[in-house]
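Q: Predict the bound structure with 4'-deoxy-4'-aminopyridoxal-5'-phosphate.
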Amino acid sequence: MKDDPKGTSARDVLARDRRHVWHPFTQHGLGETPTVISRAKAASLFDADGREILDLISSWWTCTHGHSHPKLNAALAAQAARFEHVMFAGFTHEPAVALAERVTALLPADLTRAFYSDDGSTSVEVALKIVYQYWVNLGQTRRSLLVAFDGGYHGDTLGAMSLGRGSEMFGAFSDLMFKVCVLPFPGTFEGDEAVEAREAEALSAFEALPREHPQEIAALIIEPLLQGAGGMRVCRPSFLKRLADAAQGAGVLLILDEVATGFGRTGTLFAHEQAGVVPDLICLSKGLTAGYMPLAMTVAREAVFEAFLGDSFDRALPHGHSFTANPLACSVALVSLDLFDEEQTMAQIARIEVRHREMLAELAAREDVTRPRVLGSILAFDVEGLGAYQSAESRRLRDWYLAHGLNVRPLGETLYLMPPYCITDDELTRAYAGLVEGLDSIRP
Ligand code: PMP
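A: Predicted complex:
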């Protein structure tokens, strides 16, 4: 086997995988065979036979600067040689402090306190617990109601699932979920003529809530500008701004879930910059470590942090994980931030956006494509007939792309590209051609 230094055959790995591994978001009963990856470089994965697969969804949207980047590899090795991990209550370390300084400096003025956790879901759980306890600590114990959006996805732990109940992914757990007010999301696209009416509907639905539930709403959570797993649905920055003003005007805390949108995805370092919105809490993960290590941050305004101060543990935030602020992850994240300057990453994202927009025109002319949209490094559109998440049709198309060397995974009826920022122009050309060929392959 070409690409495996250990000489283990792909067939052997798969046989062992089949016996002992339970994969995420996977129906094992379908007997599908996962692809064994043995190497990755820049925008490409290589399977055990050395076959190249363009990673057009950045390995679940995490990989920003490309796979196996020499500077990120070096950061990891250097930190491992110093120390690999230490508990984060009663101890601290320079990489975690430096990363908190760097990230808070990139955020609007008083978002100054970074709470570390491990992945997007836990960053949302932390935000939830913070807003809930914030009001308890202030003596407003009735403020426990959360507001979220239809089609939103915030993770798969229990609290995050409750917030994402509008995504209809988690039906089996509905009895375990807490109550959430779900607002309609005014998703828009190129040539959308009804967007203003949908935005007005969403805003008035929000504005009615404080009247219906006086002094009961703790917080509003939204994925700013882009609902990711809900189908790459975009909203306009002006809507986000009006919503944020309405929430904060009503004394409701605003949580921005930038787990997917953070670190350049939407064309600015953070999506909220495009709307000029300053949230009370912001959730970050995925691109934080360039996809290298599980790490997340929930960053809070200083005034939120201050509500937890006191002389007893009762007012403190009872949350933390074994691997909180893992030094390996923090060290990689610091070098990832350096790379944004060194590699002119925002200019690379702008280049990708220009290419996506050119492709958008071609896609929009097709009869089988609806609701085309581009936001920064993301190109998305809908294809009628693809069916629900993981439908047989969408799995067939996913497999077609994989067989043609492209990692493209439909989200329900939505097809999208979200490549690593290092993807070259030639690779983009190859991706677009393959995307269209795949669409042709499923035409009746
Ligand atoms: N929030 C958003 C906006 C996400 O897109 C995701 C994951 N797709 C999550 C939270 C959950 O992140 P994780 O899968 O790392 O727990």
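A: The two ends are 39 Å apart (CA to CA).
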